[in-house]
């Protein structure tokens, strides 16, 4: 038997399968979709079996070393999907397959020295091998680095050998359980006397007092005060059994989640759910856009659609943007579907994620709620994929494989003949355009549940405030409303748009701004740690007390926006209890949840935060939403700036007045005439859409054109310039007359990690060969020995130009 294996070497020359023999002992075991370890040159590598066959035309093929999985981890569907994914995102097959699995299943490799000719070793070296006969390179570089050179020489002369070992991080958590063994033996023990027997007797009586079964050893030891050794000696006598068993790490353990029942749908909801239910009923793939204003009850539509999928014995995937994957959100699904829900969230530990994923593989759950990569959940009888807040940019992975979860979902929907539901109050322009063209079905929810009014929005021009002599960051109206809210015992949300408002330090004498020495970007000031940090490469330095450029002491820190707002609030509204939520206050595991819970329980009057409070929150007592610096994002070099501003304002405003109490929104900024701010305040998506579509058409941007993007990076500027010019001229000879070629130009962020960045952009409507041309260009430079270390990434449908 022969297995075609794709190996863990992300490189163009090995981006294919290699044939390996399945040794006779493993023939009944090997199946496509399993992870294996195979020899590859001098190394051992992890790989995936993509196919098995009877014969191979390749001569001298080697044996598979080991099969890592008892059952395939990639279903036949995922094997196909991976191929499609790799080809459409210009990634390597191995990268695509790895992206579908939890990180724990990706191997790490370690190098070891072993001894071939022990008689040739000096005692100094020999002693290092005495313990286990081998020595890891890791250990050498850590503790014996002075011997490294010697070890390398010994390897060259054949005294030592180097072997590669594959480490599988996918460990399972095991717990010991104890149960009653031979009953007569146990009862006899109870009649024994002696001090030593006391603890053993306690264990026996404890087990006898409980219903027959097995109990966690830990718990029994704790209850009885017995030691492990007394239980072990009981085990030797046959009075109890100890068994080690695999358990899941459950991050939601011990939590009481209230069970919920389906709500009777409003007429609006009824209309919107109909196309979804039809698609489920008829086993017919449809992509349905549920365009519903904030608070219109989209979640209830998701829940009831899932119920009807489960009733048919099928499975459901719900995607939620990373930052709104809050416990509140998860509870909505766990509350309805209980333990049949698995959660895949990046805040889980590697082990927890692996355990949740295995519940899916073993069919122990039928609903998955998760962030982007949950779209690869290995269900085999998929009945629906729901993408909540479908416009969110986090659904696009900006690293290999550069996939969009929406595209993957639709691929899977076609495969399983099931509906894909895209939900949003502010759909991406691309999505709405497709719905208007009839490529997607459109379901509109134009009012809130029970006709709660949309909150009234007031826009405040902060330039006017300044003219009136108000120098604070809060307008008079916002101050008044905040105060009134506290008096009435209602709650407020203050949102600071932090994008484009990053905190930095500035010298007031010479204008110096601290920059990252490796990237063309200013350093972000973290007050808490007294540090300046680069968000692109992680570079850090201590904040200077004087200007590094002119030695002036007039250096000013523009503290994290939210910190500054918090300080201001404490001055002008000392009575307010404030909870601040931003990257600094939520970096510890669980802190995000804690803060939200305490706000929900009324322990604060004001929730102050960044992007992370914009979405999904549903608190009945919130009546006021204040938006500070609504316009900062408009000035980013991003053709989606207006769209993102509109989306964000709509989302934040949507947090107010969702229940009985009426809501009010105050939006502050300097460039408030902009249509995206004006139209967001009128809750007018359609006018925004029409306006923005005109702009996009005029400037030839998506959805009228696709953006093909080639990004080049290298340590030397000349190399990037030359390579990108070559690529541009290659493309210009081939592109159809309808396509536009722009560049090469420097990327908006011109340098990252000391590498200069250039890009070539192609705006196109139909260019079927573009993928092949990109591949040709990438392959050409990979072979070109005169340019080392040039990095090129290609994208056929880029979402941003950064
Ligand atoms: N049919 C219904 N009857 C009564 N209450 C409902 C019904 N449907 C939804 N609700 C309630 O209305 C509120 C808003 O619904 P939901 O949070 O699903 O809105 P949404 O459309 O997802 O809003 P957003 O886009 O802001 O997240 C929730 O508290 C929900 O429990
Ligand atoms: Zn200075
Ligand atoms: Zn940097």
UniProtKB/TrEMBL annotation:
One of its GO terms (biological process) is DNA replication, synthesis of primer. Component of the replication restart primosome. Binds 2 zinc ions per subunit. Belongs to the helicase family. PriA subfamily. Residues 279-445 form the Helicase ATP-binding domain. Zn(2+) 1 binds at residues 507, 510, 547, 550. It comes from Fictibacillus arsenicus. Its EC number is 5.6.2.4. Gene3D superfamilies: P-loop containing nucleotide triphosphate hydrolases, PriA, 3(prime) DNA-binding domain. GO terms for cellular component: primosome complex. NCBIfam families: priA, PRK05580.1-3. Its cofactor is Zn(2+). Initiates the restart of stalled replication forks, which reloads the replicative helicase on sites other than the origin of replication. Recognizes and binds to abandoned replication forks and remodels them to uncover a helicase loading site. Promotes assembly of the primosome at these replication forks. Residues 542-699 form the Helicase C-terminal domain. Keywords: ATP-binding, DNA replication, DNA-binding, Helicase, Hydrolase, Isomerase, Metal-binding, Nucleotide-binding, Primosome, Zinc. InterPro entries: DEAD/DEAH_box_helicase_dom, Helicase_ATP-bd, Helicase_C-like, P-loop_NTPase, PriA, PriA_3primeBD, PriA_3primeBD_sf, PriA_C. Pfam families: DEAD, Helicase_C, PriA_3primeBD, PriA_C, Zn_ribbon_PriA. It catalyses: ATP + H2O = ADP + phosphate + H(+); Couples ATP hydrolysis with the unwinding of duplex DNA by translocating in the 3'-5' direction. One of its GO terms (molecular function) is 3'-5' DNA helicase activity. SUPFAM superfamilies: P-loop containing nucleoside triphosphate hydrolases. This is Replication restart protein PriA. Zn(2+) 2 binds at residues 516, 519, 534, 537.
């Amino acid at each position: 038997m022969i297995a075609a294996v794709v190996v863990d070497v992300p490189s163009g020359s090995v981006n294919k399968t290699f044939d390996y023999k399945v040794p006779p002992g493993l023939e009944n075991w090997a199946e496509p979709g399993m992870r294996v370890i195979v020899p590859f040159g001098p190394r051992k590598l992890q790989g995936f079996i993509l196919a098995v066959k009877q014969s191979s035309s390749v001569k001298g093929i080697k044996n598979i070393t080991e099969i890592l999985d008892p059952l395939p981890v990639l279903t036949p569907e995922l094997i196909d999907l991976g191929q499609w994914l790799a080809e459409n995102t210009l990634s390597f097959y191995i990268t695509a397959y790895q992206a579908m699995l939890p990180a724990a299943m990706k191997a790490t490799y370690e190098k070891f020295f072993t001894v071939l000719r022990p008689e040739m070793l000096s005692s100094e070296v020999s002693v290092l091998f005495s313990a286990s006969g081998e020595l890891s390179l890791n250990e050498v570089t850590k503790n014996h680095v002075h011997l490294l050179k010697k070890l390398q020489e010994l390897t060259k002369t054949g005294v030592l050998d180097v072997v590669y070992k594959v480490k599988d991080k996918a460990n399972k958590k095991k717990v010991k359980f104890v149960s009653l063994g031979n009953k007569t033996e146990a009862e006899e023990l109870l009649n024994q006397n002696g001090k030593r027997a006391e603890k053993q007797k306690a264990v026996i009586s404890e087990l006898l007092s409980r219903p027959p079964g097995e109990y966690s050893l830990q718990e029994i030891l704790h209850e009885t005060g017995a030691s492990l050794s007394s239980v072990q000696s009981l085990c030797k006598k046959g009075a109890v059994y100890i068994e080690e068993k695999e358990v899941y790490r459950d991050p939601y353990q011990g939590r009481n989640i209230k069970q919920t029942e389906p709500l009777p749908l409003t007429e609006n909801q009824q209309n919107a759910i109909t196309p979804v239910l039809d698609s489920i009923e008829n086993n017919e793939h449809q992509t349905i856009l549920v365009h519903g204003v904030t608070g219109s009850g989209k979640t209830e539509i998701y829940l009831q659609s899932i119920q009807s999928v489960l009733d048919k014995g099928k499975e459901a995937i719900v995607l939620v943007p990373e930052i709104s994957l809050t416990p509140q959100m998860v509870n909505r699904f766990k509350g309805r579907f209980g333990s049949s829900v698995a959660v895949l969230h990046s805040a889980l530990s590697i082990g927890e994620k692996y355990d949740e994923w295995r519940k899916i593989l073993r069919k122990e759950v039928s609903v998955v709620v998760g962030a982007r990569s949950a779209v690869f959940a290995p269900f085999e009888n998929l009945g629906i994929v729901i993408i909540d807040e479908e416009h969110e940019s986090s659904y696009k992975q900006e690293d290999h494989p550069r996939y969009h979860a929406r595209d993957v979902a639709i691929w899977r929907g076609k495969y399983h003949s099931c509906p894909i539901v895209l939900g949003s109050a502010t759909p991406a322009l691309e999505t709405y355009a497709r719905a208007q063209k009839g490529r997607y079905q459109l379901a509109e929810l134009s009012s809130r549940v029970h006709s709660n009014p949309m909150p009234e929005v007031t826009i405040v021009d902060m330039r006017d405030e300044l003219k009136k002599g108000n120098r604070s960051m809060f307008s008079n109206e916002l101050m008044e409303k905040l105060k009134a809210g506290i008096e009435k015992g209602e709650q407020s949300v203050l949102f600071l748009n932090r994008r484009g408002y990053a905190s930095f330090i500035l010298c007031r004498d010479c204008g110096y701004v601290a920059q990252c020495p490796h990237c063309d970007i200013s350093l972000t000031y973290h007050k808490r740690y007294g540090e300046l940090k680069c968000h692109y490469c992680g570079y850090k330095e201590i904040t200077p007390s004087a200007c590094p450029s002119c030695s002036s002491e007039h250096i000013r820190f523009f503290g994290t926006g939210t910190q500054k707002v918090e300080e201001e609030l404490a001055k002008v509204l000392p009575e307010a209890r404030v909870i601040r939520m931003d990257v600094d206050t939520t970096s510890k595991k669980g802190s995000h949840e804690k803060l939200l819970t305490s706000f929900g329980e009324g322990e604060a009057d004001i929730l102050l935060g960044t992007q992370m409070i914009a979405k999904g929150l549903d608190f009945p007592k919130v009546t006021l939403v204040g938006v500070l610096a609504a316009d900062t994002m408009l000035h980013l070099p991003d053709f989606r700036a207006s769209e993102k501003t509109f989306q964000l304002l709509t989302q934040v405003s949507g947090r107010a007045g969702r229940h009985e109490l009426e809501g009010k929104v105050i939006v502050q900024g300097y460039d408030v005439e902009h249509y995206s701010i004006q139209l967001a305040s009128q809750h007018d998506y359609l006018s925004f859409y029409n306006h923005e579509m005109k702009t996009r058409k005029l400037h030839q941007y998506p959805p009228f054109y696709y953006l093909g993007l080639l990004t080049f990076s290298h340590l030397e500027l000349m190399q990037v310039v030359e390579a990108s010019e070559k690529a541009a001229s290659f493309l210009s000879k081939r592109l159809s007359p309808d396509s536009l070629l722009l560049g090469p130009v420097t990327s908006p962020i011109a340098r990252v990690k000391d590498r200069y960045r250039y890009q070539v952009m192609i705006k196109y409507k139909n260019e079927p060969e573009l993928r092949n041309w990109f591949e040709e260009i990438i392959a050409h430079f990979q072979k070109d020995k005169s340019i080392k270390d040039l990095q090129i990434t290609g994208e056929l449908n880029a979402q941003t130009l950064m």
